[in-house]
Amino acid sequence: MRKKPNIIFILTDDQGAWAMNCAGNADIKTPNLNYLAESGIRFDNFFCASPVCSPARASILTGCIPSQHGVHDWIRSGSLDKEKLGEKKNDPYYSNEDRPIQYLEGLRTYTDILSENGYTCALAGKWHLGDSMTPQHGYSKWFTIGRGGCYYYKADVIENGEIYYENRYITDVITNKAIEYIEELSSKEEPYYINVNYTAPHDPWDENQHPKEFVDLYRDCEFNATPNEPIHPNQIHSAPIGIGEERKRLLRGYYAAVSAMDAGVGRILDKLREKGELENTMIIFSADNGMNMGHHGIWGKGNGTFPMNLYDTAVKVPFIISYPKAFEGGKISFDMASHYDIIHTLVDWLEIDEELSDRLPGRSFKHSLLGEEAEDQSIIILDEYGPNRMIRTKEWKYIHRYPYGPHELYHLSEDPGEKNNLIGQLEYKEIEEKLRSELANWFTKYADPKLDAAKEAVTGCGQLRKAGVYSEGKMTYHPL
Questions:
Q1: Which of 77, 241, 294, 435 is the most exposed place for a label (fewest CB within 10 A)?
Q2: How far apart are CA 305 and CA 309, in angstroms?
Q3: Which residues contact 427 (CB under 8 A, 6 or more apart)?
Q4: Crossing angle of helices 170-185 and 245-274, rounded to 10°
Q5: What is the spatial distance between Cα 247 and Cα 364, in angstroms, rounded to a whole number?
Q6: Does residue 140 fall inside a structural domain?
Q7: What angle do CA 26, 278, 124 make, to 5 degrees?
Q8: pLDDT-derived band of residue 377, with 50, 70 and 90 as boundaries?
Q9: Given pLDDT bands bounded at 50, 70 and 90, which one contains residue 378?
């Protein structure tokens, strides 16, 4: 029997779809991502399920929307058992930790499915879905970050059940671990799946956080590929103010982080070539959520403003899939797809005998990989961040904020930059009502009433526990 393809899923942190040279950004240097796009298919309309880390990552793995899996914000606690940290428990960095929480407990992920179908599953890099000490959901190899974010030169990493500080550049450390996995697993009969979950290009963006060679790539860059706009009135006070030279400093660090990560991708590709594994390896590249780096005058992702924003720059993510053995590369797909489609696509592509729940909202985009037209053209994308919800077609976007607004409506085919909010204008009343109805019906169909984020006070400041837990047989809601 032919060995199923190896799969390497490279996931970055806070990388906008715009932050790749192959996506048209002339300033940024990403030669290895360019190679993946040339040898694979780049999606121009790919979306996260929520414009913040943990909910988006939970949706990638489970195919559930946040209002099904209950992770509604980035996770602030539940990653570690503070009493087992030894002298580290007094470090203010761990002040929110108490006991481990497995936020995906009871849910089925595609790594569960892969491991049950002969794949060895390995994690190298960020997890940020609780209980970082314990391998979960089919992973038999586990190297991760203690919490979520970290400094690039002082990351708290977990390996073999031990936590320690890593003084080397964390992007290189994650790459090294991925290469170790390839070296070890390429000699096995079984196919492998490796998550390479970089922390880049998440902040910090200070020059001392990144190797000089990558910072110097942008020393004299004017950053004309990113907008230079007045600060958005809703930007949160803790976000940076990217004006003048500070704007260039922030972008220099962000771009350096992307290019350093790109170099790591190049090293992984070289190892696959060396081991003769490149031909039989499906490489997927994406980011957990998008990012505003001055776009709309915002410095941050969905929670860079309050109320949270759902601009395309926050919800669109890079997505490239390369597998030259099976489909022709060098193409761009303009089909709309989402992270919650990945579990369906992998099961479909690998022809795994798994009946996915009809409660999952996604669909396979295998047809897009094969250059075929979808049977159903009525694809819409929905996104959420707490009580803020978006429905998007290729032509229109409607944003509804529970309970009181403000709401937004954009005619994307005429206003791709989302500059002109048409909400409340009489001539667009019919389309506004249609989209509002479709959005409400979709969430009624798929959201779990016990975990529905429209009822949660999600602020963008982090989630401390599960959104809903049973107590004496009754559902109780906990503030996030």
A1: 241
A2: 6
A3: none
A4: 10
A5: 40
A6: yes
A7: 80
A8: low
A9: low
pLDDT higher than 70, residue 471: no
Total structural domains in the chain?
1
Confidence of residue 472 (pLDDT cuts 50, 70, 90): very low
Structural domain range at position 77: 6-380
- pLDDT score recorded for residue 412: 98
- Kindly state whether residue 296 falls inside one of the protein's structural domains: yes
| Cα(304)–Cα(297) distance, integer angstroms | 10
Q: What is the 3-state secondary structure (H, E, C) of the chain?
A: CCCCCEEEEEEECCCCCCCCHHHCCCCCCCHHHHHHHHHCEEEEEEECCCCCHHHHHHHHHHCCCHHHHCCCCCECCCCCEHHHCHHHHHCHHHCCCECCCCCCCCCCCHHHHHHHCCCEEEEEECCCCCCCCCCCCCEEEEEEECCCCCCCCCEEEEECCEEEEECCCHHHHHHHHHHHHHHHHCCCCCCEEEEEECCCCCCCCCHHHCCHHHHHHHCCCCCCCCCCCCCCCCECCCCCCCCCHHHHHHHHHHHHHHHHHHHHHHHHHHHHHHCCCCCCEEEEEEECCCCEECHHHCEECHHHECCCCCCHHHHECCEEEECCCCCCCCEEEEEEEEHHHHHHHHHHHCCCCCCCCCCCCCCCCHHHHCCCCCCCCCCCEEEEECCEEEEECCCEEEEEECCCCCCEEEECCCCCCCCCCCCCCHHHHHHHHHHHHHHHHHHHHHCCCCCCHHHCCCCCCCECCCCEEEECCEEEECCC
Asked if residue 132 lies in contact with residue 94, where contact means CB atoms within 8 angstroms, the answer is no
Residues 140-167: b if buried by 16+ CB within 10 A, e if exposed: ebbbbbbbbbbbbbebbbbeeeebeebe
pLDDT tens track for 161-201: 899 999 999 999 999 999 999 999 998 999 999 999 999 99
231 located within any domain: yes
Tokens 């969430």 label which residue?
443
Q: Give the pLDDT score at 2.
A: 53
CATH number of the domain that 75 lies in? Answer: 3.40.720.10
Q: Please state which of the ranges 23-37, 234-248, 377-391, 457-471 shows the lowest mean pLDDT.
A: 457-471
Cα-to-chain-centroid distance, residue 372: 26
Residue 65 falls within a domain, yes or no?
A: yes
